[in-house]
Amino acid sequence: MPTHPIMNARETPLAILTICAGVALLVANDAVAKLLTDRYPPIQILFMRNVIAVPIIATVIVTVFGPATLRTAHLRLHALRGLAMLIGAWLYFTALIHMPLAEATALVFSAPIFITALSVPLLGEKVGWRRWGAVLLGFAGVLIIVRPGSAAFQLAALLPVGAALCYALFMMSARWIDRGERLWTMMLFGMLFPALYAAPFAIAGWSPLQVADLGLFLALAVFGSMGLALIGHAFRLAPAAIVAPFDYTALIWATGLGWLIWGDVPLAWSVLGAAIIVLSGIIIILRDARQ
Fold first, then answer.
1. Packing angle between helix 42-60 and helix 183-204, nearest 10 degrees?
2. Which of 165, 171, 166, 163 minimizes the C-alpha distance to 33?
3. Whole-number Å distance between alpha carbons of 284 and 131
4. Among 57, 253, 254, 272, which is most buried by a count of CB atoms within 10 Å?
């Protein structure tokens, strides 16, 4: 990560552009997955994405960093992280069957709230009243979108919240991995283990692949892999306090794609809840940066 102040100043615009591009690719990944849910089970979509992505990532690793980067000293931890990623991705892809893309994306952004809440029991961190206040604010935003007890409530809205919890566990567990391990190595095992876990379930409920959809599956793998790589690189170019808030540009992309592809227009309640979740996340990010 750059440490010179002049270098930081020069690389900050590049870092912002990089994370915005990465976020846009991940939302495009989600949109393609939503399109595919009309014809394939979520577990098969997840399996196909990862099976295609693993050799792509492995090729990049061998070409750029050398075969030694394929090895890891944290295989068991990667296996556990892969399980969290599998469950989270399955919950999210299932949610996309029943929910607009923008609403599902907004609820997944409750992950920083779970990270803060779980950092006390799992990481032994101290969380002050301001960050606890941000956590409560974020959960209020989630409740506004989900609206339990109202006529508009649907159980499917809980799926992306569960996915956010799984993603939070996946991201927090990275703290237990040696910092010397490369991002690409972590990405490789983050794709490999979910593919292995998903394989028997995908095969059991397999839907024959349509030739016209092969391009969509390839796009899914490329968008997902490149999106994660760009976001990871952005955090190496500039401090998290500068880069992380731009992660929320995903809501703009999700809203735009949802409207263009499916004609979805977010409800006022959903917009309000999403805004509160974003505010909560930014408060948590800034507090973490100050500490």
1. 150
2. 163
3. 6
4. 254
pLDDT mean across residues, the chain = 90
**Residue range 18-30: average pLDDT?**
95
pLDDT at 123: 79
Q: Can you read off the two tokens belonging to residue 287?
A: 């507090």
**C-alpha distances in Å from residue 76, one per residue of 193, 200, 281:** 10, 20, 30
Mean pLDDT of 127-156: 86
Could you tell me which residues come within 8 angstroms of residue 77 by beta carbon, excluding any fewer than 6 positions away? Answer: 173, 176, 177
pLDDT digits (tens, 9 = 90+) for 234-283: 888 888 778 888 999 999 999 999 999 999 999 899 999 999 999 999 99
Task: With cut-offs at 50, 70 and 90, classify the pLDDT of residue 179.
Answer: confident
User: ∠ CA(256), CA(214), CA(38), 5° rounding?
Assistant: 55
For residues 64 and 124, which has the higher predicted lDDT (pLDDT)? 64
CA distances from 268 to 55, 249, 271 (A): 43, 18, 5
Tally of residues, the chain: 291
d(CA 170, CA 248): 19
Domain total in the chain: 1
Do 15 and 243 form a contact (C-beta atoms < 8 A)?
yes
Q: Where are the alpha helices (DSSP H) in 74-182?
A: 75-98, 101-108, 111-123, 129-146, 158-172
Q: What amino acid is encoded at 109 in this protein? A: F
CB 36 within 8 A of CB 216: yes
Amino acid at 136: L
- How would DSSP label each residue in 240-261? HHHHGGGGGGHHHHHHHHHHHH
CB neighbours of 175 closer than 8 A, spacing ≥ 6? 123
Average pLDDT over residues 154-160: 92
Q: How far apart are CA 40 and CA 69, in angstroms?
A: 34
pLDDT bin (cut points 50, 70, 90) of residue 151 is: low
